[in-house]
């Protein structure tokens, strides 16, 4: 950059010296703040001016640092591996050039080189920098003003204060320990008295140290050149330093305890008022500049929140603001002079068809200046125009003459040297009294640099991976990079002819309009996210950074597609939610387990007490016949309770292992119900509970295990009696519903809470621990009921209107006639029961079951390969290539479901498509669906009938 393009308000080095009507050197160098003026020649950033205060603070000389890059003069401390000052300042300066806006940096640890005369090396410094651009009329960055505040003493003091605070805390902790020791050993009166006196002296020393530290802190704060004060959450002054008293002109007594808004009511609803309230609400520090009009002064405010209120550092920056304004005005003067020097004038005499121009215009078009001053035919100037632009320019001239409108055109011309230049021409025709055009004066400016900058910008637009755009304040894109069309799928014309709000997701439009209103007020947007509609109707997440330029009424936008990141975040949230749900489930399972173990311990120990007690009495004492009989009856009753508990536990164990077997035979439910009622009749009579039975006659039998079905009914009826109060009522109904026998057991007892109803059939679950203490039991009965009913192909459900309103349990079992019809359909579907030539692979880890299935199939002339595990089955499958696979589900190590999934993953040649039948003690519908989903074609519940198994094999082969 040549020297004539630098700001004339500063007298700078040889390479950057420029002339100006005002000499700002003395003004700038005398500024009390620490300032540098840097050239915008990234990455060097040459120092072209420096204030005296800056030289003094950095121990440098003006002639030593001018014309040198700032990072050459002030490098990072090589002895500090964590030094980041150079990197952070480079980032800030580049941001200023890119955004054409000021950048306020956080406090930086930036050590400065110490001159050899002062010992050499580096000196630790802390700076608070602000970098501000000086813009040309074309909004290009000409210079950067680098302003810093040396906050080293404050940072060092804060560090010392923190260390002192920690030391004080340690001392206080030690004092508290001593007091506790004194209290515990109070019996040693003399020694305790000495220790107490020593502790009191120590506390006095601590208080004196704390007072000294406070005095030291007050001394530092009072000596600050900045205003420092604290406000509580009611906006009252709680602390002020001497500078506040000096600046406000009010005494300490007038300020302390008073609301700042009462003392300075003109600041209510101002920027200062808004920023302080925001810090209190958001609890986030902030920094801002504020012009206080009553004093006509500028202040920089740093605000820090705490639980009790806020702390504020206020620095007057009126002088630095004045310097910035002077520099800006000088820059405008320079640009005006440059623009004036680049404007060329002409006058076309339409009647004579001759054009007169100034010398600069003549040089640009390559004609003799003297001839041009006298007048030359317009054709000479038209020939200098670019041939592609000439028709368009002539049309614009003729249109301006015909309509009396202003002529405005931009086109290319060839200079005398053959160089192509871009120019902008402006003019307006003059007319005589008759309205005839007589002359056409105008002016022309060389805009080659601007056009080149626009071309560079357009090239940058197209090459950038970011989604760049320029929009107006009316809500339309004026220009957008190719990244937009690639991301959204629209053409550039579609993007620029519709308001951008129409592309925004309906849920995000309100927030987007709020951001647009902020931009219209000149507030920059950074980190705003919304969703944009693509051509295919989908939406993409967009991250925005937008800088408003109010003078141009334009918004410069940089956006990025963050859809993948948002999807990853959403997936992460789902994973976290699933993990939390799994953890809660596990914790609930652990709680249930712990509760069950506690109940189990209680229920096993409770009967043991009378058993052991009466047994001891029978052994050690001679009891009469009546007491002996009573003792034996008590021992027997409690022993039976333990037997029942153990039977329930064994049943649950068998169910969970799939080993609960049924002795299947036709069962008359009326007889089973009557037998179950007999076992609980005495308990019902003891509580004066009336048991009513309504048994519908002539109901078909069911196929099942009579003992297990009686166990189901005993559980339901005994629970009804147990939970029904004195003189209550229990009803048992047997009726036919379609092809099922339905048993309904209802009572007028304590009922079931709606929240517990979904868990009533789960293992180890009871409504609350009080239920266990009052009624006993492990919470296994209903879980066993559900499993037995489902093994019979039936269902069970519970209903209750709530606590105190009784409960109803309904059991449905398929009638034997329907079961036989199903078996008959299977038999009818087979063409021949003969399995001759069919090889069946049988898999079961129970030897008895494996031998039983093998015997059935061999009787039907099938070839049987029997194995004891899933691993052996996979080996036999590829070795023998059987016709059918018959597998148990509940096997150790690898169960039937996993075996089937492994089989289906094989190729056809390896046996992956083999027909398969599942055998399981789990007879519920959900178990059947799970087997089919795993890859089995048929699910047969145990116990397995020979005819049903053979029919299933025949049907699956056919």
From TrEMBL:
Residue intervals of the Histidine kinase domain: 599-817
InterPro entries in alphabetical order: CheY-like_superfamily, HATPase_C_sf, HATPase_dom, His_kinase_dom, HisK_dim/P_dom, HisK_dim/P_sf, PAC, PAS
Domain PAS: start-end pairs: 213-283, 453-526
Coiled-coil regions, chain positions: 179-209, 560-587
The EC number(s) this enzyme carries: 2.7.13.3
List of residues that carry 4-aspartylphosphate: 888
Pfam families hit by this protein: HATPase_c (PF02518), HisKA (PF00512), PAS_3 (PF08447), PAS_4 (PF08448), PAS_9 (PF13426), Response_reg (PF00072)
Primary enzyme class: transferase
Keyword field contains Membrane: yes
Cellular component GO terms, alphabetical: membrane
Keyword Metal-binding: no
Subcellular location: Membrane
SUPFAM superfamilies linked to this entry: ATPase domain of HSP90 chaperone/DNA topoisomerase II/histidine kinase (SSF55874), CheY-like (SSF52172), Homodimeric domain of signal transducing histidine kinase (SSF47384), PYP-like sensor domain (PAS domain) (SSF55785)
Main location as per UniProt: membrane
GO molecular function: ATP binding; phosphorelay sensor kinase activity
Matching Gene3D superfamilies: 1.10.287.130, 2.10.70.100, 3.40.50.2300, Histidine kinase-like ATPase, C-terminal domain, PAS domain
PAC domain mapped to chain residues: 407-459, 526-574
Domain (Response regulatory): residue spans on this chain: 839-957
Keyword terms of this UniProt record: ATP-binding, Coiled coil, Kinase, Membrane, Nucleotide-binding, Phosphoprotein, Transferase, Transmembrane, Transmembrane helix, Two-component regulatory system
Similarity comment: In the N-terminal section; belongs to the phytochrome family.
Full protein name: Circadian input-output histidine kinase CikA
